[in-house]
Task: inverse folding
């Protein structure tokens, strides 16, 4: 049994590393044009560009590692099944669950834990290091602090969250103005907005339309009164954004830092759904490795197809379905339709249930 188990694991390990290297290289080359632009048009030195190139790798591994696992499973077990080696094992009375699937799931658990550490430590570090490098070489603009789907605290007085940014057009804007003594903050919500940068004045003028403002009562901090507005203008001071100390965004934070900011925002009365969504998305992506191994191994055994084109097609279909579900779940979470603790695990749950159903067929067959 040990010899057979080692043989099957060896069949998986080889394609896995090949696929991981190939996928990571392809995605790195996809960013090569943008980096070449920095050298040719911006005059950035090669060392800084090399740093940016290296900082891309941890972020890419978040996606390439689970995909490489899925492709490697389909290729290796697909070959074994098509050569009737799986049939031979089954007719010999060997339990495929114990021989093949459980050892591969253990490998998936180990890879998932490694990826979890990556998503907690290396990926945030790489994101933040990239921003610092870009800042140090002067690749910045007055609107660089604006990013959709994340809290922006680079401006004096305000914490901003924008759901969508298209050019200078904004939609679903939330602005929080913390009050002293940990009193509940002023909250402005607008359906649309647009910003106009004034680099010479170190400011951005933000025009908000069709919104409301929850204004705290100065005489009674526990009470609010709501103001409706058609148009509201805010001046955002860029002095804080231009300081040497770069403010961390949620993508730059470790799990501990995200939890710390969640607690801080809750005290101030600021909506923390985007932060909770970011936290659970990273964890769910790490453990997608286990789901891909379960689903991929069952499909490979049941379909028994050796052709690489068919295995790649199945992998492509699973990957597209998973990441479409992830995008949809992310949107539902940010819009408040589902709790992030549930929403971000929906792709893993759906594909995991399908994998378990297929596993049941293998055990019965």
Result:
């Amino acid at each position: 049994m040990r010899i057979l188990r080692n043989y099957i694991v060896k069949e998986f390990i080889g394609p896995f590393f090949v696929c991981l290297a190939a996928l990571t290289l392809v995605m790195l080359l996809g960013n090569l044009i943008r980096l070449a632009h920095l050298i040719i048009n911006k005059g950035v030195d090669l060392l800084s560009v090399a740093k940016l190139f290296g900082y891309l790798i941890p972020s890419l591994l978040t996606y390439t590692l689970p995909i490489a696992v899925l492709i490697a499973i389909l290729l290796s077990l697909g070959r074994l099944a098509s050569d009737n080696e799986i049939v031979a094992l089954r007719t010999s009375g060997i339990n495929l669950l114990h021989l093949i699937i459980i050892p591969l799931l253990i490998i998936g658990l180990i890879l998932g834990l490694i990826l979890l550490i990556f998503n907690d430590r290396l990926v945030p570090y790489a994101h933040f290091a990239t921003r610092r490098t870009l800042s140090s070489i002067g690749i910045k603009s007055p609107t660089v602090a604006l990013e959709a789907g994340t809290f922006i605290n680079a401006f004096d007085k305000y914490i901003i969250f924008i759901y969508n940014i298209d050019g200078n057009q904004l939609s679903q804007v939330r602005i929080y103005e913390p009050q002293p003594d940990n009193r509940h903050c002023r909250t402005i919500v607008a359906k649309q907005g647009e910003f106009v940068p004034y680099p010479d004045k170190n400011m951005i003028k933000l025009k908000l339309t069709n919104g409301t403002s929850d204004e705290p009562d100065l005489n009674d901090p526990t009470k609010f009164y709501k103001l409706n507005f058609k148009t509201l203008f805010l001046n955002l001071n860029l002095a804080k954004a231009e300081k040497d100390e770069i403010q961390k965004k949620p993508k730059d934070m470790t799990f501990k830092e995200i939890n710390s900011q969640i607690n801080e925002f809750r005290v101030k009365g600021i909506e923390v759904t985007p932060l909770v969504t970011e936290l659970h998305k990273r964890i769910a992506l790490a453990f997608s490795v286990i789901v891909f191994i379960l689903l991929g191994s069952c499909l490979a055994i049941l379909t028994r197809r050796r052709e690489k084109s068919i295995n790649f097609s199945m992998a492509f279909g699973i990957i597209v379905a998973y990441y479409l579900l992830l995008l949809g779940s992310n949107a539902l979470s940010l819009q408040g339709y589902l709790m992030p603790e549930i929403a971000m695990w929906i792709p893993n749950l759906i594909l995991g249930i399908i994998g378990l159903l297929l596993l049941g067929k293998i055990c019965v067959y």
